Amino acid sequence: MAAPGDREPAPFRIRAARWPEDGARVARLDTSCATDRVLRLELAPASAELFEERLPGPRRKDYGPLDADELREMAAVLIAEVEGALAGAAALRWEAWNRRAVIEHLFVAPEHRGRGCGGRLLEAVEHAARELGARCLWVETQAINAPAVAFYRKHGFTWCGFDTSLYDPEGPAAGEIALFFTRPLVPDGRTGRPGRRRDRS
After folding, report:
1. Hey, where are the domains in the chain?
2. What is the average pLDDT value for the chain, to the nearest integer?
């Protein structure tokens, strides 16, 4: 996940994606990120820790274009716009068996990063997750993407796991370490439940 940091509010409009008209737009969204920091994973026999390290120069990671056909299968896809221009997008996958809402994508266009767009999209994602009856949000990112880790931690996510062998050693993410973060959704004070449950898979 590319990290959409926050600096100041902007008049972003958040709405549900419309198909097929939004397909080409989200496919053109720049999902790359550049960072001069990474997370180093240190393992002990019964523990693991993350340490931030500064690189000698910026490193770029490109997540590639979003696939409209894949997005249509998601439980929710949210679009952020500024004066009609695409500013960002987020996609949520629903796991009915454990009531977990997985943030599959959350990207903000480079020119809108640091202006609050990522936070607005995350709010919309949380609302969609509550509508599904989710008990928590869950997201995967990588140790190379320190800005994304900082973004999710800022918004209340905690590190819950890692996988050093998730990515194909002959693929574009060779050598990267997957990091997993989660945030519980506190019960709705009016109902005493996380939200309305829908049997989607």
Report:
1. 13-40+52-184
2. 91
